[in-house]
Amino acid sequence: MSLIPLVQISQATSEERIKDIEERSGGDEMILSMIKSHAWSAMCSYTHTGMSQLSRYNSSEAIEPNFNEDEIIEALNFANVFGLQSALWMNSVSSNTDRLNVIGEKINEYNEYSEQIFLGSNPDSR
To answer: What pTM did the predictor assign?
Structure first.
């Protein structure tokens, strides 16, 4: 395993950083690599004045945000899942079992909440 020394992380490419993170966490699941190879271009196109972002800011009446509700929900869901997964990965490397348990609980809560949203019931009415 050839891990990047922490002092060199800022100079590493994103591919090198991803490989380093995956190796430090056991490398069994190459989730970051899959996200980088399958979704990175689309995500950049939405955020860095790419065609996806520009096309959603133009309508026949104005230049303003023009995202449909499904696109917003999909982006927020991806960000939430990625954030929770990142917290899980970071803490699995540190072996902090108390924190891992808390994160696991939060992931379960989010899963329950998101299932209710996608199935059409109101989770706040409980």
So the answer is: 0.59
How high is the pLDDT of residue 126? 45
How far is Cα 105 from Cα 101, in angstroms, rounded to an integer? 6
Distance CA 75, CA 97 (A): 30
pLDDT tens column, 4-53: 666 576 778 888 888 887 777 666 667 778 888 888 888 888 777 788 88
Mean pLDDT, residues 55-71: 85
Token output for 99: 């924190």
| Secondary structure (DSSP) of the chain | --PPPGGGGGGS-HHHHHHHHHHHTTSS--HHHHHHHHTHHHHHHHHTT-HHHHHTTB-SS-BS----HHHHHHHHHHHHHHHHHHHHHHHHHHT-HHHHHHHHHHHHHHHHHHHHHHHT--GGG-
Give the other-Cβ count within 10 Å of 21's Cβ: 19
CB 62 within 8 A of CB 84: no
